[in-house]
Amino acid sequence: xxxxxxxxxxxxxxxxxxxxxxxxxxxxxxxxxxxxxxxxxxxxxxxxxxxxxxxxxxxxxxxxxxxxxxxxxxxxxxxxxxxxxxxxxxxxxxxxxxxxxxxxxxxxxxxxxxxxxxxxxxxxxxxxxxxxxxxxxxxxxxxxxxxxxxxxxxxxxxxxxxxxxxxxxxxxxxxxxxxxxxxxxxxxxxxxxxxxxxxxxxxxxxxxxxxxxxxxxxxxxxxxxxxxxxxxxxxxxxxxxxxxxxxxxxxxxxxxxxxxxxxxxxxxxxxxxxxxxxxxxxxxxxxxxxxxxxxxxxxxxxxxxxxxxxxxxxxxxxxxxxxxxxxxxxxxxxxxxxxxxxxxxxxxxxxxxxxxxxxxxxxxxxxxx
Length: 369
Hints:
CATH topology of the domain at 54-194 and 283-360: Rossmann fold
Radius of gyration: 20 Å
Helix content: 25-40%
Largest sheet: 8 strands, mixed
CATH class of the domain at 54-194 and 283-360: Alpha Beta
Strand content: 5-15%
CATH architecture of the domain at 54-194 and 283-360: 3-Layer(aba) Sandwich
Strand order of the largest sheet: 1-2-4-3-5-6-7-8
């Protein structure tokens, strides 16, 4: 189950480009966890998630190969363009994509490269997101952009963060205003703790930050002190909810069994502590921009919905709620009991489709089955 750890400098080196390997089910955990087994490229099965309706492509961004996925509706009436989250190729499950297709909604999204346990990825992610928003990177995506149907934009978690960071550029704001009829940001990531909008130097963080930097690229559940810090700073959703605690226990058992955490496979699934610090640092300018009412993001005039899982253990819900109050034309939708994938609840998905149809002016019959 070992996963080769790519050197981030080699990954983006111009002289000897080393394309990142992608896997569409990288974030999928089996319904019945089996000790010492995770779904990785060399042992996954497509039987559980039929994906014949989803096609895969790629394009070059600098020296890095970036994958994208597309699923065209047979009776296409609108298109969603989007961006995945961190270490997860699918911002929506294949089943959700199928429901969208059945409702006349095509979708095409880019998948962020998976850096495993390496650092230095944030500027390359941002470059890929900015390029995707400004210029179609290949003929296939350009043909999708040219289709004469309404278009919306959907981004999940870190992808949603990259979208907001891209709005630093007034030209991108203008392009978004002229291209899309609606923006959907799911489980927006602005920081690992609920207090990120207020301070970056709490007493506890003075301990956590050095520990994270010296953690030897461990993920939080591999590090007792860091895991406790995350629970302390996001008490409602990170560790004190029974469901979340069971998930953490199941994941730990799934990857490590009864043994010490020595297998690097979990670094393929979840952000390491230094990676959390890097993403948090990348989010700080976004928080500052949203606080500045004269900044470019406040020129956005496209209706925007923040999709928030009330029990999200990774993207603290207060941050998404706060962001929805800062962005012009924005509203929030809090899905009670939902965690980080905040469109999987049938009621939430139904609301998402209704909002999409209203924004795009499409009126085809809603189908959820």
